[in-house]
Fold:
Amino acid sequence: MKKLILTSIVILLIPLSVYAVIFGGSNLELIVGYPSCNCIKPTKPFKPYSFNNQWEIDYYNMNIDSYNSQFQQYLSCINEYVENANNDIKIIKSKIQEAVDEANY
Structure:
């Protein structure tokens, strides 16, 4: 049974490189486990029922510009989190392959 499981693992991991070196960030924490994304999504500005003067229009537009800037920062944060998570997956797969290769040596 153990031989069957080990053989199955080897077959699944054949495409992985034995000498894989992964560069990039990581989200792994030693004790806590895998962290959730801590990116803060901005809230959309409140649109007034009506614009009564130019100041209200300018103020709303300024809030929209600020929101758009914060949202771009949020997307960058999300992209970094996803990239780091993908790096972690590569590292884990590489370690699995090392263990399988050692067991088959």
Observations:
- DSSP finds two helices and no strands in the chain.
- Residues 54-104 form the longest helix (51 residues).
